[in-house]
Amino acid sequence: MAAALPLAVLLLLLLGPVGGGHAEPPRDTLREELVITPLPSGDVAATFQFRTRWDSDLQREEGERITLEKDNCHLLVSHYRLFPKALGQLISKYSLRELHLSFTQGFWRTRYWGPPFLQAPSGAELWVWFQDTVTDVDKSWKELSNVLSGIFCASLNFIDSTNTVTPTASFKPLGLANGTDHSFLRYAVLPREVVCTENLTPWKKLLPCSSKAGLSVLLKADRLFHTSYHSQAVHIRPVCRNTRCTSISWELRQTLSVVYDAFVTGQGKKDWSLFRMFSRTLTEPCPLASESRVYVDITSYHQDNETLEVSPPPTTTYQDVTLGTLKTYAVYDLLDTAVINNSRNLNLQLKWKSPPATGALNRGLVFAEAPPVPFLYAQRYVSGYGLHNGELNTLLYNTHPYRAFPVLVLDTVPWYLRLYVHTLTITAKGKENKPTSRPPAVLLAPVGEPHIPTARLPLLSPSVLSALVPSVVAAKPVDWEESPLFKSLYPVSDSSSYFVRLYTEPLLVNLPTPDFSMPYNVICLTCTVVAVCYGSFYNLLTRTFHIEEPSTGGLAKWLANLIRRARGVPPL
Amino acid sequence: MVAAFSFSKGLTTLSGLLLLSFGSLAASQIEDQAEQFFRSGHTNNWAVLVCTSRFWFNYRHVANTLSVYRSVKRLGIPDSHIVLMLADDMACNPRNPKPATVFSHKNMELNVYGDDVEVDYRSYEVTVENFLRVLTGRIPPSTPRSKRLLSDDRSNILIYMTGHGGNGFLKFQDSEEITNIELADAFEQMWQKRRYNELLFIIDTCQGASMYERFYSPNIMALASSQVGEDSLSHQPDPAIGVHLMDRYTFYVLEFLEEINPASQTNMNDLFQVCPRSLCVSTPGHRTDLFQRDPKNVLITDFFGSVRKVEITTETISLQPDLEIMESRDKKDWMDEELMEPLQYAEQLPVAQIIHQKPKLKDWHPPGGFILGLWALIIMVFFKTYGIKHMKFIF
């Protein structure tokens, strides 16, 4: 106690003289958006995006650590304000360049709901680009998946060499890249992974306002999991800090997409409100956010006497080309005090003014209008009969009126499911063609070393399809990471097309199991053969015949004679 | 003489006073020591809560574990000190009519899953091996912190297990089991590695008392929901969910714990009385012979709550920003712009590379194998038929 005082004084002296207050501009920013899209089938899709950008170059400061002799130079990277410390330390410890992790429950029905903003495969997906300073990528990958399983309460520790692949064409870095050496990329999918509140809780805790203010107030688990589709993801990548792109900032994007089913949650009515979807309303923006907006998609719902009415009426609308089509959005800016002033809360309501004749809307999947068929969608199924042989079919549909576009397909199968690559046939327009050209048509790499297979049926991971789809409407080139969520999420140099990545459904394949009745069959057959063949020969060879005196009768004859004597009849 | 006498009198009174004060001081010190002897000497609390059953109809085991988790969190133990192992997912199970909820009371009164749950070991990760590794600390080095039991010799640990069990074993995941001898040996390893100060072991399975029969390490107190030869029964089914929601013993323990707050002085003897035979149908048992303190001096919050020793100090320390660091940082920023060339984003689908790829020219190799043999045969037949004299017309 007494020694602490001079120690404290010493500490003050070491820290240097007190200067004038040097107010530092904040080096990280948070932008949050919510996009509500009514889907043609009456369901409603809500997509949240929280972007935290941190203007700090972690690698440069790592390098500085070696050159500066100061003891407290590591303080440069230890001050975390909005960017979560757990993820910041991951980036520096494992020398990550990019990290993409998603947890999904359900399947996005592209045919009925249209193309999604972000798509993710069912289960858990993790793909990581490491820096080129990493010497043992596999070891870092294994440790990273274990650490992430602890952070997100998921079984990511089941990712090992048997389900990790290194895709050479389908995945390119989404952030700034200095050359793409694919040996630093690792990709794994766990299709069986369950997503529940325990995955949402740590995800919410990474947000700066953490379910207390702003849009994250709406993230209540009991409503978010009562949906047809739930997907949450974390994306970390380096981005340009300014238009000249001479320095790096780190961007953390946390996205959450849910689709509320009209017939399960909505009881058949197509009217939606924030309260009905999330059981909460928006009360105040997050004080740490520089932007906090809600967008409602109000395109193309003015046909067929059916209009969508949004209340309270929006102050501004925003039009832009999203995923190849021109869309109109109603914008509610939470930072604008006019939006939340009267009632102290914002409960957006979407009401349909439908004509009375279409009562059939509430029963079955009858659409008011045909759903917009997307330009690219895919299906996958298993065919064939018997357990020994089967076929894996992937169907790709291109419904663009006049353009063709190249598609890359990535399929991950476990090692114990043997695919014969020479039987791969590609059928287009009814004509079959075998791929004769060598890579990049087929790039096959073995997945992992054999190990004792588990007793579960293999769930094949979803196929990944990547395609550059030419859009019908040309988009104006815009600084794409400044714009909101639904502007293209992938960097494309040609603004007349947009890049889309689709996932198919996971497949359950029945593998042949050994016939467990074989030991019984073998015993029966062997015993029969031995008894019939060998037994007959043995008898033939060793049986001899003797003549035997017949027996005189014994006890029965003596008893019978006794009775006959009693009767007076002559004995036998 | 008088002065000497008065001096000696003064001395004796002085010495008497001193002796008296020393005596009273000693007495109060002994009193303090006696009190401290009966108070537990732990400084932190841990909880390991395990549910070992799979499948939808074992919903009640998950609800049991989650209700203990909820009580323990409410009484102060943080998530970082709780290792929660659930062998199957009930809340987001497709058969659950209310997703993301696990109820313990019928008519859906109490959702024990809540909004803030962190499960450390999920579904197939709950195995006997992982459980024993958590207890003994022999974990692979890449295991994250939330999956470790980082207790020391001043930790009080609560271990709660539930599932299906029998005489001397507990079933894990429908495919393996842990015996009471393995469990006792694991606790002995923990004692020898000084991984606990005191341990409270609660088990809610059929014939649960058989699991604590073999313990031999000191400072362990054990409770079970039924004796050997008896079955533990479930409490009440819910018609909307369609399964039994809780087991009886844990249901009444939960009701008992709901009345405890972090400051309460209820002791272990009250916990032993929870769920008599009339309510539980089975006879709950307990074992305290290995425990050094008297159960009536052990507070419930010694195991279910969390110890926080807070010392308030009036000293203030002010932290000054280091100007030198900030100056160097600003300089570095300015230097950034000069050094690096503009960076670019990678092209996602390099279409030009894919479409305009020229077919690779194959190198010419001389024919081999079958073709060579065929041509050799043809040439041989020709010359045999027409004679060798035609060679000169060819070469």
Automatic annotation (TrEMBL), chain B:
The gene is PIGK. The active site is at H164, C206. One of its GO terms (biological process) is GPI anchor biosynthetic process. Keywords: GPI-anchor biosynthesis, Membrane, Signal, Transmembrane, Transmembrane helix. This is GPI-anchor transamidase. Residues 1-27 form the signal peptide. Its main location: endoplasmic reticulum. InterPro entries: GPI_transamidase, Peptidase_C13. Pfam families: Peptidase_C13 (PF01650). Heteropentamer. Part of the GPI-anchor transamidase complex, consisting of PIGK, PIGT, PIGS, PIGU and GAA1. Interacts with GPAA1. Interacts with PIGT; this interaction, via a disulfide link, stabilizes the expression of GAA1 and PIGK and links them to PIGS. It is a single-pass type I membrane protein. It comes from the Eukaryota. Gene3D superfamilies: 3.40.50.1460. Pathway: Glycolipid biosynthesis; glycosylphosphatidylinositol-anchor biosynthesis. It is found in: Endoplasmic reticulum membrane. Belongs to the peptidase C13 family. One of its GO terms (molecular function) is GPI-anchor transamidase activity. One of its GO terms (cellular component) is GPI-anchor transamidase complex. The chain crosses the membrane at residues 364-383.
